[in-house]
Design brief:
CATH topology of the largest domain: Rossmann fold
CATH superfamily of the largest domain: Formyl transferase, N-terminal domain
Strand order of the largest sheet: 3-2-1-4-5-6-7-10
Radius of gyration: 17 Å
Largest sheet: 8 strands, mixed
Shape: globular
Distance between the termini: 37 Å
Bound molecules: 5-O-phosphono-beta-D-ribofuranosylamine
Number of domains: 2
Oligomer: single chain
């Protein structure tokens, strides 16, 4: 069974979705550890309650990004993970760190990349007046919120939406697509070919999720 390590900074609801999928027998992975860069990350308690080893490495205790990333990598490597899962880990990672885990570092981003990389994605989507928004799971490259796309889910932007309603609609989809992406990885169904993800599943459109609200 594949070993994964999950990195968080806060609420940890995506992490929870992964734990729930594993507990439901739908995610054949061992969650070896959950690591946070913030001591008060709510997700740390959730992980501990689920019996998962937790660690906290305070980025503020390090002189710079490289030093923190080196300590983080040392902690991660202690668990020999096949996959490192970024689940709301609010740190920009150094190029060295990203290269170290190339092809086995996944992120979820709350927009349909390449639209709206960075922060405040839901407000920016509202400000632009887009009609469709969503989330993306991708392999991580050194560029921020960039890399081979594994799966995307689309949701509508509806009249009367505010940042909170739109974020909640997207988050429901995040909790579906992240376990799916990690499951595909665990089952060996994801291959990287010429910088793109090739998905070895029968349904050709499995990597596109359309929220029921769109229909
Ligand atoms: C999610 O919206 C995720 O896409 C983004 O940060 C948020 C984390 O939420 N990267 P949670 O901590 O998983 O609840």
């Amino acid at each position: 069974m594949k070993n994964i390590v999950i990195l968080i900074s806060g609420r940890g609801s995506n992490m929870e979705a992964l734990i729930a999928a594993r507990e439901a027998g739908q995610l054949p992975v061992n969650i070896a550890a959950v690591i946070s860069n913030r001591p008060d990350a709510k997700g740390l308690e959730t992980a501990a309650r689920a019996g998962i080893t937790t660690h906290f490495i305070d980025h503020k205790a390090f002189a710079g990004r490289e030093a923190f990333d080196a300590a983080l990598a040392e902690c991660i490597d202690g668990f020999a993970p096949d996959l490192v899962v970024l689940a709301g880990f609010m740190r920009i990672l150094s190029e060295g760190f990203v290269r170290r885990y190339e092809g086995r570092l996944m992120n979820i981003h709350p927009s349909l990349l390449p639209s709206f990389p960075g922060l405040h994605t839901h407000q920016r989507a509202l400000d632009e007046g887009v009609r469709i928004h969503g989330c993306t799971v991708h392999f991580v490259t050194p560029a921020l919120d960039h890399g081979p796309v594994i799966i995307q889910a689309a949701v509508p932007v509806v009249d009367g939406d505010d940042e909170a309603t739109l974020a909640a609609r997207v988050l429901r989809q995040e909790h579906l697509v992240y376990p799916q992406a990690v499951r595909w990885f665990a089952e060996g169904k994801l291959a990287l070919v010429d910088g793109r993800v090739r998905l070895a599943v029968e349904a050709g459109n499995a990597a596109v999720l359309i929220a029921p609200e769109v229909r």
